[in-house]
Amino acid sequence: MDHHAVTIVGGGNAGISLAARLLREGVDDVALVEPRTTHHYRPLLNYVGAGLAPMSAVERPTRSLVPDGCTLVPDHVVSVDPGASDGPTVTTAGGRTLSTSTLVLCPGLDEDWDATPGLARAYDEGWAASTFVGESASRVWPALRDLTAGRVLFTVPPEPAPCGPTALKPLLMACDHWRRRGVLDRLDVVLVLPYATALAVPVPDRRVEEALTSYGVRVLREASVTELGDRAVTVTTPTGTEVVDDLAFAHVVPHYRAPRWIEDAGLAGTTAAGLADVDLHTMRHRRHPAVWALGDCADLRTRPSGGALRDQVSVLAAHLTAAPGTPEARLPRYDGYTVMPITLDRRRLMLVEIDRDGRPSPSVPFVDLTRPRRTTWLADRYGLPQTYFRRILRGKV
Ligand SMILES: Cc1cc2nc3c(=O)[nH]c(=O)nc-3n(C[C@H](O)[C@H](O)[C@H](O)COP(=O)(O)OP(=O)(O)OC[C@H]3O[C@@H](n4cnc5c(N)ncnc54)[C@H](O)[C@@H]3O)c2cc1C
Questions:
Q1: How many A from CA of 304 to the centre of ligand 1?
Q2: Does 231 lie in the same domain as 172?
């Protein structure tokens, strides 16, 4: 059985960034288990869905991003034994078992297709797709671009979801496109929101609501899609059930849950989505001290996002590389910082940054980034992807 000092499960945003950071800080035996040969910079998928980025800008070969010195295990973890006598072990679909001194889980969230009957079929039939499902993202803009009349439905997924509120981006950028083309008035645009307001953060909420009103979007609040079929979507709201039918297109994002093997290993807490049960500030598992989790799969009581990972990776790396015996009080803690970048149209973006309690947590002093700006849009579309591939995934941020 192979043994590694640190084994990271999942080579997405969290896993690659953490591996790079640990290697930079002198940990010399890091293994990364990741089955996908192509890595996605997922925030750009929303621009693909608005016809403002090609898929080629999103994708890179996984191998080209794995840091030098890291052992890549190109396989899928199917089970974990957190309490094995020589340290945790993971078993892969290919039949390998790896033992490790420190296990870090960051496999992200799984799409829960069973949670919404008819959704997978609607995707197969082609009248539903979303930027959140990588393989379908390139179908979104061709479906929206040429609409001149009819009904379209969008959803924001309930939490946990990978930066769920950014599902507003393809909606708001499409509305701006339709308005510029002079067809918006002939379209019936419906939005299904899981909560009472778009973001549940007062000032930015007001700006999003103003945009939705100006585009004439009909919003179903505290609502959830319960079924799809025959170009119709059944939505449950606090006042009953509504069937939105005759749809030209439905941008329905699947619900999400943590991979089942986290729960099967006894590593989940009390969330219905089976998220890994870790300390909110250190990301160490509450019952298995050799196991840690970060990113979308971890129950950190904040909204998952790539932006949140910058702090999570730095805090976790500090804990894993601390000299033995360092008092925990001397180590950094994660305060739940997360981000929601929302495009109000095809030119301007507002960046909403909050902590675990929903309080503003701006990363830049004296500039109100929640005010929609052209510069912030350009940074999100063009600047951040460069920073992601050149610095974040190299453990430099
Ligand atoms: C459409 C979209 C837009 C977004 N926009 C933004 C944005 O604008 N700003 C922002 O901050 N965040 C955004 N996000 C969220 C951000 O992409 C995620 O929060 C981030 O990718 C989470 O990183 P992660 O490493 O936890 O999970 P992921 O990036 O999902 O990576 C998980 C990795 O684990 C691997 N894996 C899964 N199961 C296993 C297994 N069993 N064994 C081994 N490996 C496994 C997967 O193949 C994957 O590579 C967006 C997400 C989406 C989908």
A1: 9
A2: yes
Predicted confidence at residue 284, as pLDDT, reads: 98
**86/322 Cα distance (integer angstroms):** 22
Return all residues near 152 (Cβ < 8 A) that are at least 6 apart.
Answer: 144, 174, 187, 188, 189, 190, 247, 248, 249, 250, 251
Q: How far apart are CA 388 and CA 292, in angstroms?
A: 23
347 in any annotated domain: no
Ligand 1, residues 103, 166, 263: which to mutate, most atoms within 8 A of Cβ? Answer: 166
Q: Are residues 141 and 230 in the same domain?
A: yes
**207 CA to centre of ligand 1 in angstroms:** 27
Ligand 1: residues within 6 Å at CB?
Answer: 9-15, 33-36, 42-43, 45-46, 76-77, 106-108, 131-132, 162-163, 166, 259, 295-296, 304-307, 309, 339, 341
- The answer on 315 and 212 residing in a single domain is no
**Ligand 1, residues 16, 155, 173, 296: which to mutate, most atoms within 8 A of Cβ?**
296
Supply the residue whose CA is at minimum distance from atom 26 of ligand 1: 295
Ligand 1: which of 7, 8, 42 to mutate, most ligand atoms within 8 Å of CB? Answer: 42
Alpha-carbon distance 255 to 101, whole Å? 34
- Specify whether 26 is located in the same domain as 88: yes
Indicate if 277 and 244 belong to the same structural domain. no
Chain segment 44-101, per-residue pLDDT in tens? 999 999 999 999 999 999 999 999 999 999 999 999 999 988 899 999 999 999 999 9
Range of the domain at 200: 112-255
Tokens, residue 82: 């957190």
Entry pTM: 0.97
Each residue of 107-117: pLDDT tens digit? 999 999 999 99
Whether 39 is covered by a domain: the verdict is: yes
**Residue 218, CB half-sphere, CA atoms under 13 Å: how many?**
10
Domain edge (last residue) among 255, 289, 309? 255
- Looking at the CA of residue 14, tell me the nearest atom of ligand 1: 25
Classify residue 220: in a domain, yes or no: yes
The domain that contains 275 carries what CATH number?
3.50.50.60
Distance (angstroms) between ligand 1 centre and the Cα of 105 equals: 12
Assess if residue 297 is contained within a domain: yes
From 220, 255, 290, the end of a domain falls on 255
User: What's the total number of domains in the chain?
Assistant: 2
